Amino acid sequence: MIDLNTLLNPCILCGVVFSIVGAILFYFPPKEINLIYGYRTIRSMKNQESWDFAQKFSSKKMIISGVLLTLIGLIISIISLDNQLQLYVSLLLIGLSLFWMIFTTENQLKKRF
């Protein structure tokens, strides 16, 4: 049975949020370059073609990160790590996921454009 502490694991929470936001961005990407919604970096906002590519590519990476974070969060909860250690591991994994999403998207933008 999944208890409240398991659901409050930062890895699981961020994983679910990443998955939902990634799906929203994948199915409803911003049509035009803007400063409010979407994957916004100097490279992605260079032109419309790079913008469109960055939205699709980054949203896929976000969904993958979300699913992996959720699964790892469940595993961490099952292992029953100390709460403080669980928090540190979760924050490290979330940071690595964000880095991976940005790094891979920027590399693909650099290669393609």
UniProtKB/TrEMBL annotation:
InterPro entries: SdpI/YhfL
Pfam families from the UniProt entry: SdpI (PF13630)
Keyword Membrane in annotation: yes
Record protein name field: SdpI family protein
Transmembrane segment boundaries: 6-28, 62-79, 85-103
Organism: Mesoflavibacter profundi
Superkingdom of source: Bacteria
Keywords associated with the record: Membrane, Transmembrane, Transmembrane helix
